[in-house]
Structure formats: structure tokens, C-alpha cells
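Why run this: before we spend reagent on co-expression, it is cheaper to look at a predicted model of the complex and decide which construct boundaries make sense. The entries below are exactly what would go into the expression plan.
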Amino acid sequence: MDIQESWQPILILGGEGGSVTILGKNIGNTEWVFKKRTNEVFSFKEMDNDQNIEDRGTRQIKKVIKVKPSIKQTMEGTNWEDAITMIEEFPLEQLSPKNVHPFFNKRIWDIVSKRSLSKYKLKRWAKACFPTITDEIFELYEALYASIHTVVLTGAGMSVESGIPDFRSKSGWWKNIDPLTVATVEALEENYDLFHEFYTVRLKTLGGCKPHEGHHILGKWEKKGLVHEIATQNVDGFHTMASSSQVDQLHGSIRTFRCHQCGSEASLDQFINKESCSLCNGKLRPNVVLFGEMLPEQAWNNALNHMQRANLVIVIGTSLKVYPVSQLPQMTNGKTIYINKEVNDLHSFFDLTIEGSAKETLSSVDQLIR
Ligand code: NAD
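The model came back. C-alpha cells follow.
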């Protein structure tokens, strides 16, 4: 086999007067060798020569370096640093990316995104490294890094990709009953059988579901200092399960229970078995906020406080039809971004709207996060 055939372009850069390519070849398992090829006339610093030079030929193997195949793996113990040096020697401000090998895209983006490139140049790099990145996704990425205090507000749409249906996308809802008429104080007090059945079905659904990648990404962004607070209308507890620690559950939790009458704690089993309160014989219920009830004061005040401090508010998967949470995005002077599977004119008061699912949108932005 002609050995040259297996060289693949890892990075092709173009500029006035020519192009420069880093080629790589997998020589087995996790080992790659690299070489650099410059075409046409270039007048920038070459890695082995501090002089400005003209090079019309092909530069051959400079380094033999090893990298591990998964971009998630650390570079420790490899010589990827040598390849980084090779790339960093290029005047990236003057050159445009023509092609980035998908196996090396994250590593190359990590190098490039640390350089102080113009927004225009950086966006070109983002799109070269990750061809599915849209202008909106790039704008969200930039807003995240520009913000000092970022709040995420989530609704039922955040958990739909975990398998938990929301309330307003009506397709296939349980017994064709509008959940908004069952999750009420009236239903609890006057139609307990229906109320109990509704929450039993919801608890069973919850049992088979877990947080998805989008929840985990928000947890990771908190650790990176990119997200400072999650205010959620969801009662499923998925943000906390996905390692977010600054979470205010504005509509309570479906995972704990109490007596509706005297407030004493109850267990899941007591609720599922439809027992009455052992102290006062009252009806047992989950610790969710029902339509017609006040929000937990501390959670609300905390969320409001964060909103007022926020430079950036990202609203994900909520119809913003439930008061008073619907008012929260208007309490900030910061930039507002709305992510939803369905976006319409009503959302035009947001600075940016992104039509897409929660998981896909967050995963798309996360590709760019260093
Ligand atoms: P909603 O049902 O009124 O609206 C859901 C929104 O999410 C809609 O705008 C829909 O277009 C959008 N959506 C659906 N799938 C999506 C996806 N994959 N990605 C992005 N967006 C998506 O929900 P709400 O605004 O949160 O208000 C309803 C109430 O329902 C809240 O009080 C909440 O407590 C409760 N609820 C909670 C859960 C949960 O805890 N997971 C589930 C259902 C309802």
C-alpha cells in the first residue's frame, strides 16, 4: 500500500497566497504521526525557523506524536502538545479554516477559542470545527462567556426528552383529561380519587426516567462557573440529580409527601397506598405546588434575587403560561434567551430565540464549551 494514501488532512488553513495543512496518519491503535505541508508563498513564522520565509514545497515529517482516540480522554502522557505547538505557530488571525478533521475538532477548537480572535473569525472557526453550529448557537455560547451571572429558568419541556410529558403539548395525555384541571386544590379536595390516580401515574412514569444529557450539561456548566442558578418549575428533581447544586424548585417536589390538612410528613408508600394521615386523618399529597396555591417563599425570593442580578437569563422548555413564574424573565436587565421546541411571535421580547429541543440545543452549545 502506498503509505502516502493514508495521510488525512487534520487542519487546512488558507490565507492570502496559499494554504497550510497539517496531515495526520493513524499508525495503529492510538498512535498518530503528523506532518505539516505549506503550499504557495507564506510570510509568517514557521515552527523551525524564526525568519520570515518563502516556502513553495512540501514540508515533511516534523514530529511523531501520539494521541488517544477519544476526545474525552486526557492528553496526559502523549505528545499532542507538539501538535498544539505546530498549530499555535500559525498566525490564526490571518488564516481561515478550510477543513477540520472531525476526530480532532474539539482539540483544535480548544486551542483556537483561547486566542483573542474577532467575533467574525471565531464564528468561522466554530463552524469549521462543528459544521452543525448555527449563528444562534454561537450567540448563546458567546453570551455564556460574556455573562458574569447567569440564570437558567426551566419548565416541563426540559424533561420531555427524559420521557416525562409536559402539560401543554396535549398529544396522548392521560385519559384525555387536561392536567391543568387535575393538578388543582379543587381536585384534591373534591375529587381525590382522580387527583390520586393522576399523581400515581405521574410517579410511575417518573420511576422509569432519569435526567438526560441536557440536565447534565447544565450541572457541568455550573461547575465551570458558567451557570449560577437554576430556577425550575419542574417537580421531578432532575436538575439536582444531574449535579446542579444551585436549584430552586418553584413548584415544589413530587418526590416527597405531606398531609394536606396538618402538613405532617408522609411516605411514598403511604401516598401510593392511599392511606390517610396517621395524625389527623387528612388527605395525603405530594409536595408540589398545585394551581391555586402560593409558591414556596424562600425559593421564589431566591429566584427573584438571582433574576435581578443576572446578566443573562436562559429560559428553556416552558410555555410561560403559569403565573407568577411567567413574570420572572421580565425581572432582569440582562440578556434573555428563549429555547423551545416551538417559538412564535409572542417570544419576540426575548433578545434571542432558539427553536430546538432542550437536549439538542444544550448539546450543540456544549461542543463549544472549553
Ligand atoms: P408547559 O407544559 O406549559 O409547556 C411546556 C413547553 O415546553 C411548551 O412550550 C413546549 O413547546 C415546550 N417543549 C416541549 N418539548 C420540548 C423539548 N423537548 N425541548 C424544548 N421545549 C419543549 O410546561 P410549563 O411551562 O413548565 O408549565 C406547566 C406546569 O407543569 C408547571 O407548573 C410544571 O410544574 C408542571 N409540570 C412539570 C413536569 C416535570 O416536573 N417534569 C412535567 C409536566 C408538568
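The pocket of nicotinamide-adenine-dinucleotide is lined by residues 155-157, 159-161, 164, 166-169, 233-236, 251, 317-319, 321-322, 340-342, 357-358 (CB under 6 Å). The longest strand covers residues 18-28. Bring this page to Monday's planning discussion.
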